[in-house]
# Entry
Amino acid sequence: MILPLIISALAALSVALIFVGIARIRQPDQVQNRLARYAVPARNLEELELRQPFSDRMVKPLMQQMSWLILSRTPPKTVAAIQHKLILAGNPYNIDVRDFLGIKGFVGLILGAVCFLLLVRVGSFLNAVAFSAILAVLGYYIPNYWLSSRISARKKEISRALPDALDLLTVCVEAGLGFDAALAKVAQKWENALSYEFGRILSEIRMGKTRREALRALVSRTEVPEVSTFVSAIIQADQLGVSIGKVLHIQSDQMRIRRRQRAEELAHQAPLKMVFPMVILIFPSIYVVVLGPALPTIVNSLGAR
# Structure
């Protein structure tokens, strides 16, 4: 029963990856959009509905119904936690909590249905239902791991970009620009998660927020220790009237020291991480190459005795 379960899981995963790949590589065709302007108009509602893509007619309504059903039974604390995680991940693909819950339910439903269709032919009905339920629950939680990986990747991206951004901020402030103008320069120069957050800070300041509130919102949207240290130093310098250029220069040096220490820590962890691939993959191959030719002689000598 393990082999059919593995086959069903791989099949369901392949189907999900196909849908994700189609959704990501699908680009609007300008030629088709222009030709659609001169197309023959639909004569009735049924023809108009059939002209829509399959995803708009079937997949999206199903996901919306599932999202509303799951959202109505999800505690408010869980909804708030998911919303915060989406913010930490940079809100990929511009989805909200309702859409994310719908994706979770849709993935669980697809995995469970594929597993049931594959196992019901080779095993009993009860076993197919049990394994389908297990795989459906597993599929429901797969988007959570994807979201956690997006959060980790975004935090690493911000941590790596922060020292260089502080260097550019220091140069701009020492050249005579204000702090807000220096943030705008960094946001214009780069295209990464940190520059996007700097641009959002400027947008919030234009909308009426104070600089202190916008910077504190940056800390809550990133949850990166280096960013929290940087924001605390800027707020303290603004309150005490200290030169922001000197604070930025000190922060830049500290961030580079931390980045060097982080690189050294990862370098020290590399030998430990290499042990398991070497034991599992490399050492058996070496044993086969070294001891393989002598193995028949050893077996014959032991058999003769």
Notes: Residues 125-174 form the longest helix (50 residues). The chain has a mean pLDDT of 81. The chain has two domains: 2-153, 157-261.
